[in-house]
Amino acid sequence: EENEYGLPENYALLQNHPNPFNPTTTVDFALKKAGDVELNVFDMNGRKLMEVVNGRMDAGYHSVEIDASDLPAGLYLYRI
Asked: Which of 3, 23, 42, 66 is 20 to 30 A removed from 78 (C-alpha atoms)?
């Protein structure tokens, strides 16, 4: 849902696409307020492998590309 200004009413972290991917994928997310954002990629053991975003972002809809060409094939988790 959006407010009258076209901004998201809630925070959202969406499914990456394409999935599965090789070697890049895109993650979409929504911020209802501006703020500091970190988006990180983890292996299945919880080890942080990559910092994708670390900084202030405006409220709204965002997309970031993750280039995992330096990572071995496997399952990965991301967290914002």
From this structure: 3
